[in-house]
Design brief:
Layout lengths: L9 E11 L3 E10 L2 E6 L10 E8 L2 E13 L2 E9 L1 H15 L2 H14 L1
Antiparallel strand pairs: 1-2, 1-4, 2-3, 3-6, 4-5, 5-6
Length: 118
């Protein structure tokens, strides 16, 4: 598979909930980026590429929530593409990525790319 990713992913281990029009699934976060997430299903349930969804990641008292679209499903892994995110969630996500990247300049470059693609 060709690598087309333009945004850095950070490995992250957290519980999350993936809500589709059909189900509410418990999932584990494998990694996060400014543009989406890679999730692992805890129970095998049918999820289709192209389906709209909501991803909610709990970080103690904080929460990151994004409206997304299922980009791909491979085995127990679900890739989601962020379609919209509220200001509070993007602030938490930005800080999380900044800490894990260790390079604020790289994050700023990615934020500019994200804004220009919107």
């Amino acid at each position: 598979m060709n690598e087309r990713r333009h945004f850095s992913r950070v490995a992250f281990d957290a519980d999350a909930v993936l809500t589709t029009t059909e189900d509410r699934l418990a999932v584990k976060v494998i990694d996060l980026s400014l543009k989406g997430a890679l999730l692992r299903q805890c129970a095998a349930l049918p999820v289709s590429a192209g389906a709209p969804c909501l991803v909610e990641v709990k970080l103690g008292d904080l929460r990151i929530a994004m409206a997304a679209e299922v980009a791909h499903v491979h085995g127990d892994q679900i890739g989601v593409l962020c379609r919209s995110i509220d200001i509070e969630s993007i602030t938490h996500l930005r800080r999380l990525i900044e800490i894990n990247l260790g390079d604020a300049r790289l994050l700023e470059r990615e934020l500019k790319a994200l804004i220009s693609s919107a």
